[in-house]
Amino acid sequence: MKAEIKLTATQEAALERYCRMMHATRENVIQQALVCFLPNCTPSKSISLRDDSGFGIWRNKPVDALEYQRKLRSEWPE
Fold this sequence. Notes:
The chain is mainly alpha-helical. The protein contains three helices and no strands.
């Protein structure tokens, strides 16, 4: 299967450098990237921030988030 991939100039330059360094074609590098990516991708599983360990970390703390933010920002020099 053929696919068109649009890259930014920065991405294209990085891909070219990587291909030269690895002595590989663009096609081979992209195929290898897909082989590494696809086994880790599970489309049936929805990705949610609630699954992230950092989500809701302050949930059970008796702190008013806005007040805490104001306190921290008041320490910043103007």
